[in-house]
Design a protein that fits this description.
The protein has 12 helices and 15 strands. The protein has 399 residues and is α+β, with helices and mostly antiparallel strands. A hairpin with a 5-residue loop joins strand 6 and strand 7.
Length: 399
């Protein structure tokens, strides 16, 4: 078994579904798609596990004799599928981490992959898509062992400061008086109640080759990253300080297996209308680089969440879902942004898709990436570039 530590917050969050839509050309046959999907699933150890919670509240990935990852054929659009599937809980305790919905016709073939975050992050889903298309093309494939981040495997020089430990110890001690263990039955109740009154929406923006090339050149000429430039454009008409979260790849060894190996940083910035977009982007870029270049900042959130009592992490997610309440979990949820004050903006930029686009006669034309609206966010942005085209999605609750 592999203990779930750094990604424990994904366990009882009611919105943990990552979606990717792949548009591809080629002669696709239904039976071959199902076979290729099943072959690709066998290649990733994590997709052949299930999640187990013991009597002490610890959660683990456990070996599973039969996975429950499946393929469906449906003409529904990406937004329709998200609205339908976000209301259907992934039964990770039975080994269900991944769903694929396929629409085939003469003009456009669409493959919508939906993954529970405990099955992997955005890069993980890309690596599965690569294995799927390689399997379709009868290419040789390698088995990918599970690689789970935990406090012991994080970089040694990324330890938390003592003040953070003191903060966590205070809440862990308070929690002992109210401590409750949660089950998948609790998750079912919380999930069903939550989605009776919630629905998300996805807005899609496409930045074509010419415009993207010009923007990338401007970024290069000014020594800034594209994400900083994008954020500056996004917040330029907002007068108040923005709390911005950024998902970051935590794969120090550059492995290409599936699991949630993402970490994250956050910055606060108020757009300065006296300065240009580029000058604002330079400041945002500087704030980002300061944290990304320091491992203590880069991996802080993973150490931080893994050090709380596991059941307290569950409780703050269930506070957000309005299923469970206690004085300790309510206070902590509010302080950590799981309450009324969430991140204003959360950005995941997968940059250029880290997989081939051509697999024999099959070609990937376009990829759309939709991260989940997690408990601590409200405007979730996913970005990915394929064939010199950047697709940006904004995922949010439709009120």
């Amino acid at each position: 078994m592999w203990k779930i530590e750094t990604e424990r917050a994904d366990l009882f969050d009611v919105n943990m579904m990552i979606s990717m839509e792949v548009k591809a050309t080629g002669e696709f046959i239904q039976d071959e798609i199902v076979e290729a999907f099943n072959n690709a699933v066998k290649l990733f150890e994590i997709l052949n596990t299930k999640v187990f919670i013991d009597n002490d509240g610890n959660a683990y990935y456990k070996e599973n004799d039969k996975n429950n990852n499946k393929v469906w054929f449906s003409p529904k659009t990406l937004n329709e599928l998200i609205n339908e599937q976000e209301k259907i809980r992934f039964h990770i305790e039975k080994g269900e981490f991944l769903r694929l919905f396929v629409s085939l016709n003469n003009t456009e073939n669409r493959f919508v992959f939906m993954l529970h975050h405990l099955g992997g992050d955005g890069k993980s889903l890309l690596y599965f898509i690569e294995a799927f298309f390689k399997s379709l093309n009868n290419e040789s494939l390698e088995f990918n062992k599970i690689s789970v981040l935990n406090k012991d495997t994080l970089p040694q020089n990324s330890k938390m400061p003592l003040v953070a430990n003191a903060f966590i110890n205070y809440f862990n001690k308070k929690w002992q008086k109210e401590k409750k263990f949660f089950s998948f039955e609790d998750m079912d109740k919380a999930f069903n109640d939550y989605w009776k009154n919630h629905k998300t929406n996805v807005e899609i923006q496409i930045i074509g080759q010419k415009e993207l090339s010009e923007e990338l050149k401007e970024c290069k000429d000014n020594g800034i990253g594209y994400t900083s430039y994008f954020i500056a454009n996004k917040i330029k008409n907002i007068e108040k300080i923005q709390d911005i979260g950024l998902a970051v790849d935590g794969r120090e060894d550059k492995n290409r297996t599936m699991s949630n190996q993402a970490t994250g940083i956050s910055i606060k910035y108020k757009y300065d209308n006296r300065k240009s977009i580029v000058d604002n982007a330079k400041r945002i870029n500087s704030l980002m680089r300061k944290k990304l270049n320091n491992l203590k900042y880069k991996y802080f959130i993973l150490h931080f969440m893994a050090t709380f009592d596991s059941t307290l992490v569950d409780a703050i997610n269930l506070e957000h879902a309005n299923y469970f309440h206690s004085k300790t979990s309510e206070k902590l949820a509010e302080m950590l942004g799981y309450g009324s004050k969430t991140k204003d903006l959360s950005v995941t930029n997968l940059t250029k898709a880290d997989i081939p686009i051509q697999y024999g006669n099959y070609k990937i034309d376009e990829i759309t990436f939709v991260p989940p609206v997690v408990s601590y966010g409200k405007n979730i942005i996913g970005m990915i570039t394929t064939n010199d085209k950047l697709i940006v999605t904004t995922h949010y609750y439709d009120n």
